[in-house]
Each structure stands twice: as structure tokens, then as C-alpha cells.
Design goal:
The complex is a heterodimer of chains A (298) and B (251). In chain A, 71% of the residues lie in helices and 4% in strands. Chain A contains ten helices and four strands. In chain A, a hairpin with a 2-residue loop joins strand 2 (130-133) and strand 3. The longest helix of chain B has 16 residues, at 183-198. In chain B, strand 9 and strand 10 (227-232) form a beta hairpin. Chain B has helices at residues 57-65, 86-92, 109-116, 123-136, 138-142, 153-165, 183-198, 210-216, 234-240, 242-248; strands at residues 19-28, 31-41, 46-50, 69-76, 79-80, 94-97, 171-175, 202-207, 219-224, 227-232. Classes of the chains: A mainly alpha (298), B alpha/beta (251). The structure holds adenosine-5'-diphosphate and magnesium ion (MG). Adenosine-5'-diphosphate (ADP) binds at residues 28, 31, 33, 51, 53-59 of chain B. Residues 57-58, 99, 176 of chain B line the site of magnesium ion (MG).
Chain lengths: 298, 251
């Protein structure tokens, strides 16, 4: 019983991380049709900010966490301004290639300026301690992760429902030109999308760093790849789809870890992606695809 | 603005028109859809732009709003807006209920109106306007929390016009508001436009339905193949022009 509960918590924690990152990808995609593969480097910038703070002997947790998130937001906004604005109205392939280019350049900058090797960051270890939750021993970090993700989703929903800019972002996913024709400045919509995306990357960065305790130039690569898969499964461009896909992927991964016999352990990812492929056979556009679910995206 | 620097060139009687378009050329990529047209809309007037399918009416509207590539002069409310981006034109007082309505189908009826008033700094006035439109069109009021995509065509058109009015525009551009609607609904829509005109709104009305449009227009231009081929009041246009009959089906 305790074992099952722990595995459920594992699945939720993994799912939460994927959901946070997938939401960051989906919000940008829904508005400008861009698959932002440089999202992983936004996460890594958060990690390297922690390294910088450690070097400056700044260890106040609020400064470390706040600084890393702020750095991710700034990085995301900078990418929009410098790299993605020029290709804003270009075709999706151009945007995709730009994102890949930016991603590779940033990885190499980390590699040259900092180090190709992992750099240890110990300032977030304090987030992880064993807690008993309804009689089950789990990690506090997992609880934080699940709770943060739920709060983020609620906050994002409120933002998208209650603020004019939020309404503009939802509307822009269907008809950006019409949004401009009611007078909303497109720069504000794009900047807000990247700001939210950066904020989500920053939060994901905190949890990834707290778990791994180190940063290297490829810190964000694997999580973003997984989040991309989550987006595809959930329906690319759909925000509920990104959340659903993230948690589904987390659940499948943990289920494979638990269910696969020891000797197949190395093939976990193959099984995970096999199941994902089956889901896509059933729903080629993803479970909550904006095309199948015409209309509301959140 | 070229015109105002040469006062002798055009002996302008009375005040400047609200909207004055000179030699407007509109292209979609390599295709030129409008080949240099000129027209004007005086304040408080309803002017219609008539013409068959493909004449260049929507291209003209898009150029006026700044979402299609164009050259020529567009003077609005005493300023040259030819080079302004779309958002600034809306700020300056232009608003459009576009062809195909383009309501935000994934937003509720009320959210469409809220977003329509995105540029409004006056919260109270904006809320009052939202209530006003929901009361003016009780069917929209009943469905305020419903997704706009679930509305019927006529309801969507009412929403599109209400949304356009949420900016409190100085001029309202209407692109084929009667397109694809049942005759009864068309009558309703034209009644609404007539009411707006009576309230003093300046309107540029694009229509293929020339009979209805002419009835409430002070002046009309007939567009064909990207050129203005006739213009006049409903009396002069409606009676004399054989071209008019051919292009709009008016007997
Ligand atoms: N986005 C576009 N790309 C290419 N050609 C277009 C586009 N929009 C309109 N056109 C062409 O421009 C001409 C005028 O079209 P339009 O302005 O839509 O006419 P109307 O609104 O009077 O029916 C047509 O020949 C049409 O095919
Ligand atoms: Mg048209």
C-alpha cells in the first residue's frame, strides 16, 4: 500500500515537472506556432544563475530561487526580442530552425563560458526532506512540485479568464490579426507569452535543480524533449492538453519503472514511447487537440 | 499629408472629411487587388462601397485597417495614418466588423466584448457599454457566458458589430454584415446600422446587397475589378447606371 502511494507520488512529481515545461512550450506555440526548443536553455540559465549566486556566496533561499526564476523570465523575454521577433510571421519551419539554432548557440555559450562538465549546486538541498503524508513517507520536494504545479495551473487559468491580456492571448491562438484589430498591441501579447513561458521554465528549473543538484549545458534538453512529447500527446497548442500530456507521461514512466521486469529496465523509454505511439494512433492530433476540440483551449 | 500643403489644388468646401483615401493601391503578395482608388467619408455619414465578389472591397477594408500591404494616402480625422500599424489606427478611432465576422469563438460572448474594449482606460464606461450591448441584443445577453462559437450567424454578426463598437470608434467599417444571413436577420442587421447612423456614427459600409445598403447610405461608390467605376447618391446611382444594374443586380 505504502509502495503504491509512493509510486503515485512519484508519478505526480514527474508529471508536474513535465506539465510545467509543456505548458511553457504550449503557450508560445498556441500564439505564434513556434516550437521553442530553446526552452531548455531558459531552464539552464536558471541553473547557472544559481551557480553564480553560489560563487558570490549568496545562499539566502529566497534570493537563489527568486533570482533563478527572474533570470529565466529575462532570458525568455530576451529570446523573444532578439531571436524570435524577426521570424514572428515567418513560416513554422523557419521558427523551428531559429529555435534549434538558438538552443545550440546557448549550449555552446554555457560550455565555453562555464564548463562542459556538471557544476554542483547545493543551495536547494534544503527543499528535500522526508515527510509523512497521510501515513505515507514521501519527499517534501515532490509535494512542493505537485502543489506548485496545481497553483500555477489555477493562476494561469485565472489570468487567462480574468485579465484582458489573458483574453487576448486566448483569442490570439485562433485569430491574432483580429486581436490586433480590436487594438491590442501584438508586442504585448508576444512578450506576455514569453514571460509566462519563462516563469514556468524558472519554476521547473527550481525542481530539476533541487533533484539533480548540478547543472550542465544540457540540463534542459531531456526535460524539454519529454515535455514536447507531452504536448504532442495532449494536443499541440492546447494548454489543458499540455497539462494532461505531462501527467500522463509521468504516470506511464513510473508505471513502466514499476511494472517492467528488471532485465527490461534499460528499455523503459522504448516502452514509454511505444505506449505514446499507440495513443497517437488512436488520436493522431493528440488527446485534446485544438482541432478535434474546436473552440475553447482552456 | 500632401493635400493640406497645397491648399489651392482642391478648393475644399466645408470641413475635411473624416476619412479621405487617395490613390489607394492594395496588393496581396504579387497580386494587385485594388488599383488606385480614391474616396471619402464625411463625419456622421454612411457611405457604402458596393461591388460584386472579388471587386476588392475587403482588400480596401484591410488596407484601411492596416492589415494588408498598400500604398497611397489614408487621412483619418485630420491625420495621415497611412504608415501607422493597425493597433494605432484603432487607437485613432477606426474599428471594424470584418468579413466573416471573426468573433473569438473560443471566448464567451461577454469576453468578446471585454476584449473588444481592450484599449479602453475607463473601466466604468467600458462595463456600462458591455451591459448596453447585452441589453440591446437580449439574445446576446441570454448567452453572455456561452462560447461565442455556439452562436448563430446572425447573433455572431451582432456580436461582431457590438465588439467593434466597444472601442468607441469615430468610424465604423462594416464588411458585408448581411453575408450568408436569412432575410429576416438581414433586416435586423440593417435596422441596427440605421440606428447607429441615427445616433451619429460615421459608417463605411461594404456590401454586395446594394438595395439594402443604398437605402441607408448618403453616398456610394461602385467598385469593380479593383477600380471605382461609378459613384453618387442613391438617386443618381440607383436610377441611371446600367453598370450598377449589371454589377449589383439592382433592376
Ligand atoms: N489574401 C489574398 N491573397 C491573394 N489574393 C487575394 C487575397 N485576398 C483577396 N485576393 C484577391 O484580391 C481580389 C479582391 O478580393 P477581395 O478584396 O476579397 O474582394 P471582395 O471583398 O470585393 O469580394 C480578388 O481577386 C481576390 O482573389
Ligand atoms: Mg469581401
Amino acid at each position: 500500500m505504502e509502495y503504491v502511494a509512493q509510486q503515485v507520488m512519484n508519478a505526480l512529481a514527474f508529471g508536474a515537472e513535465y506539465a510545467l515545461i509543456a505548458l511553457g512550450l504550449a503557450i508560445v506555440f498556441s500564439i505564434m506556432g513556434l516550437v521553442n526548443f530553446a526552452h531548455g536553455e531558459v531552464i539552464a540559465v536558471g541553473g547557472y544563475t544559481m551557480v553564480a549566486f553560489a560563487a558570490l556566496a549568496l545562499s539566502n533561499p529566497f534570493i537563489v530561487i527568486g533570482g533563478a526564476i527572474a533570470a529565466a523570465v529575462l532570458m525568455s523575454l530576451t529570446l523573444e526580442r532578439v531571436a524570435f521577433r524577426p521570424v514572428r510571421y515567418a513560416d513554422p519551419t523557419t521558427g523551428l530552425l531559429t529555435a534549434f539554432g538558438v538552443s545550440i548557440i546557448l549550449q555552446n555559450v554555457f560550455l565555453l563560458v562555464v564548463s562542459p562538465r556538471p557544476v554542483a549546486v547545493t543551495s536547494l538541498y534544503f527543499l528535500d526532506w522526508p515527510v509523512r503524508l497521510m501515513g505515507v513517507q514521501v519527499s517534501s520536494l515532490q509535494v512542493f512540485e505537485a502543489v506548485t504545479t496545481v497553483l500555477v495551473i489555477i493562476g494561469l487559468m485565472l489570468f487567462l479568464k480574468r485579465t484582458t491580456l489573458g483574453l487576448a492571448m486566448r483569442a490570439a491562438s485562433l485569430d491574432f490579426e483580429m486581436v490586433r484589430m480590436v487594438g491590442v498591441r501584438s508586442n504585448r501579447v508576444f512578450a506576455m507569452a514569453f514571460m509566462v513561458s519563462g516563469l514556468l521554465a524558472g519554476l521547473a528549473c527550481i525542481f530539476i535543480m533541487a533533484r539533480r543538484g548540478s547543472v550542465d549545458p544540457h540540463l534542459g534538453f531531456n526535460p524539454v524533449l519529454k515535455a514536447f512529447v507531452a504536448c504532442v500527446v495532449g494536443g499541440f497548442g492546447s494548454l489543458p492538453g499540455a497539462v494532461l500530456g505531462g501527467f500522463l507521461l509521468g504516470a506511464i514512466e513510473v508505471a513502466m519503472l514499476v511494472l517492467l521486469p528488471q532485465e527490461y529496465g534499460g528499455m523503459k523509454d522504448a516502452f514509454v514511447f511505444g505506449i505514446i505511439a499507440l495513443v497517437l494512433v488512436w488520436r493522431p492530433d493528440g488527446i485534446l487537440s485544438p482541432r478535434t476540440e474546436k473552440g475553447d483551449k482552456i | 499629408m500632401e493635400l493640406s500643403t497645397q491648399p489651392g489644388a482642391f478648393p475644399a468646401p466645408g470641413p475635411e472629411p473624416m476619412l479621405k483615401v487617395e490613390n489607394l493601391i492594395v496588393s496581396h503578395g504579387p497580386i494587385e487587388a485594388v488599383h488606385g482608388i480614391s474616396f471619402a467619408v464625411d463625419q456622421g455619414r454612411c457611405v457604402s462601397l458596393l461591388g460584386p465578389n472579388g471587386a476588392g472591397k475587403t482588400s480596401t477594408i484591410s488596407a484601411l485597417m492596416g492589415v494588408a500591404r498598400s500604398s497611397g494616402q489614408i487621412a483619418f480625422d485630420g491625420a495621415d495614418i497611412s504608415d501607422l500599424p493597425v493597433e494605432s489606427r484603432v487607437q485613432a478611432g477606426m474599428s471594424v466588423a470584418p468579413e466573416g465576422r471573426r468573433i473569438f469563438s473560443n471566448l464567451s460572448v461577454e469576453e468578446n466584448l471585454v476584449l473588444g474594449g481592450a484599449t479602453r482606460p475607463d473601466r466604468d464606461g467600458k462595463d456600462a457599454d458591455i451591459s448596453r450591448w447585452l441589453e440591446t441584443f437580449p439574445i446576446l445577453g441570454e448567452r453572455r457566458d456561452q462560447l461565442a462559437g455556439t452562436l448563430s450567424g446572425g447573433e455572431q454578426q451582432m456580436l461582431a458589430i457590438s465588439r467593434a463598437l466597444m472601442t468607441r470608434p469615430k468610424i465604423l467599417l462594416l464588411d458585408e454584415p448581411s453575408l450568408g444571413l436569412a432575410p429576416k436577420i438581414v433586416t435586423q442587421i440593417f435596422q441596427m446600422i440605421e440606428q447607429l447612423k441615427a445616433d451619429g456614427m460615421t459608417i463605411l459600409l461594404v456590401e454586395q446587397n446594394a438595395t439594402q445598403a443604398l437605402r441607408l447610405s448618403d453616398y456610394a461608390y461602385l467598385l469593380n475589378n479593383g477600380r471605382i467605376v461609378a459613384e453618387g447618391t442613391k438617386e443618381t446611382l440607383g436610377q441611371s447606371s446600367a453598370l450598377m444594374a449589371e454589377l449589383t443586380g439592382i433592376a
